[in-house]
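Hi support team,

I've been running sequence recovery on a batch of backbones for a student project. Most finish fine, but this one hangs at about 90% for roughly twenty minutes before it completes. I'm not sure whether the input is malformed or the queue is just slow. I've pasted the structure tokens below so you can try to reproduce it. Let me know if you need the job ID as well.

Thanks,
M.K.
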């Protein structure tokens, strides 16, 4: 599916405030509510819109540790390893990347012992050869909305 300018405008507005009603969005964009609703339904059907969520300040709810973990998999087992890692509760992102590392994992934790247990759990996954853990000291920006 190719997106036109109207679809992109709808998506940008929903990324900034997914709680606004279709009527509010239609007024803002200068189009009918029916048009906005039908476009949103189409974007949902095509899985361009996967869901709706709140953007939370993780530190304010106790997740003060962010870890970026490099994972090197054995042989050609990267996809299976990534699928397994994706099941962990603390994981925010799993990225299949280029370079000397196979996968980057971004995860959040409340305490160091949770991070320690997590990293040891990663190392015990079948076909994980090695991990390198980086702890984030400060977050300058963390917002995956394209604006």
């Amino acid at each position: 599916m190719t997106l036109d300018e109207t679809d992109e405008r709808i998506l940008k507005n929903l990324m900034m405030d997914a709680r606004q009603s279709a009527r509010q969005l239609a007024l803002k964009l200068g189009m009918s509510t029916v048009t906005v609703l039908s476009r949103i339904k189409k974007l949902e059907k095509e899985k361009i819109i996967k869901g709706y969520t709140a953007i939370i300040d993780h530190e304010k709810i106790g997740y003060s540790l962010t870890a970026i973990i490099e994972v090197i998999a054995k042989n050609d087992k990267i996809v299976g390893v990534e699928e397994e890692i994706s099941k962990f509760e603390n994981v925010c992102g799993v990225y299949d990347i280029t370079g000397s590392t196979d996968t980057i994992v971004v995860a959040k934790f409340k305490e160091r012992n949770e991070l320690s247990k997590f990293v040891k759990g990663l190392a015990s996954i079948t076909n994980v050869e090695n991990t390198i853990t980086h702890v984030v000291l400060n977050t300058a920006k963390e917002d995956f909305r394209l604006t």
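--
Follow-up from support: It reproduced on our side and the slowdown came from queue contention, not your input. The helical segments are 5-16, 22-29, 33-45, 78-86, 112-123. No action needed from you.
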